[in-house]
Design a protein that fits this description.
Blueprint lengths: L4 E3 L1 H11 L6 E8 L5 E8 L7 E5 L2 E5 L1 H7 L2 E8 L2 E7 L3 E4 L5 E4 L1
Parallel strand pairs: 1-6, 2-5
Antiparallel strand pairs: 2-3, 3-9, 4-5, 6-7, 8-9
């Protein structure tokens, strides 16, 4: 299985800032069934790496992704976006055929 999932420099910087307050924490990125389009992204700090997690490092940032979620994230890029309506992590997923207006859920073709 390929681990083609990338972090932008902005995402890596923000992950490192957030995780600095929790020694040894990484950002867990997961894809769950649900949301208004079929699948939704979940982001949380996690200090416990599962045995089968794929670990992605970019500078000082560490991301954990379980193998099932990684299949749905193949070729994706995680960015950190700052906008007038708020700042958030955003996934650019080439496998997503459509996404909802909030950007946190998507559907596959």
């Amino acid at each position: 299985m390929s681990t083609q999932f990338r972090l932008t420099d902005r995402a890596a910087e923000r992950i490192a800032e957030i995780a600095a307050s929790q020694d040894g924490a990484a950002l867990r990125v997961a894809v769950l069934a649900g949301g208004c389009s079929g699948f939704q992204y979940k982001f949380e700090l996690d200090q416990n790496r599962a045995e089968d997690d794929v670990v992605i490092e970019h500078g000082p940032a560490t991301v954990y992704i379980d193998p099932t979620s990684l299949e749905l994230l193949e070729g994706s890029e995680l960015d950190y976006v700052e906008a007038l309506i708020g700042s958030h992590f955003a996934v650019r997923n080439p496998q997503a055929a459509s996404a909802c207006g909030c950007g946190s859920s998507f559907a596959l073709a």
